[in-house]
């Protein structure tokens, strides 16, 4: 059974930083597309960043230059370094895994999801 467990969320001030992690119990982690998504109250879930088996990355325009996704295949862990955080970044952040080959930022492409970790940015 696939399990994804996020950690690292919290409350920070405008301009602060956080590093999210996702521990994956997934034997094929190194060859699996992984992504970070977020959902704010009253809004749809949106893609933040994804990384494929070749370490190629995609970012949402809203986070380009501020967020960085990475993976540690030896530890089966996915990370999201978030810098220059803004109040608009406040949301529940989810880690997800996709068996597909596209590795885009569409939630429908992802097969497994974590429970999420809350990120709150105060102005």
Describe the structure concisely.
With 123 residues, the chain is mostly beta strands. It is built from no helices and 11 strands. The strands form 2 sheets. Strands 2, 4, 5, 6, 9, 10 and 11 form a 7-stranded mixed β-sheet that branches.
Description:
This protein is mainly β and about 120 residues long. The protein has no helices and 11 strands. The strands form 2 sheets. Strands 2, 4, 5, 6, 9, 10 and 11 form a 7-stranded mixed β-sheet that branches. It has a 4-stranded antiparallel β-sheet with strand order 1-3-8-7, with no helix packed on it. Strand 7 and strand 8 form a beta hairpin. It starts with a strand and ends with a strand. The mean pLDDT is about 95.
Write the layout of secondary structure elements.
Elements: E1 3-7, E2 10-13, E3 18-25, E4 33-39, E5 46-51, E6 57-59, E7 67-72, E8 77-82, E9 91-98, E10 112-113, E11 117-122
Parallel strand pairs: 2-11
Antiparallel strand pairs: 1-3, 3-8, 4-5, 4-9, 5-6, 7-8, 9-10, 9-11
């Amino acid at each position: 059974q696939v399990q994804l467990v996020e950690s690292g969320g919290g409350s920070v001030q405008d301009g602060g930083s956080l590093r999210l992690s996702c521990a994956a119990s997934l034997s094929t982690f190194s060859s699996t597309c992984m992504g970070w998504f977020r959902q704010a109250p009253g809004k749809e879930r949106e893609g933040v960043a994804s990384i494929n088996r070749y370490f190629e990355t995609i970012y949402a325009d809203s986070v380009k230059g501020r967020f960085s996704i990475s993976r540690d295949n030896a530890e089966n862990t996915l990370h999201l370094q978030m810098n220059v955080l803004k109040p608009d970044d406040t949301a529940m952040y989810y880690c997800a895994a996709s068996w597909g080959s596209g590795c885009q930022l569409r939630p429908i492409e992802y097969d497994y999801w974590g429970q999420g970790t809350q990120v709150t940015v105060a102005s």
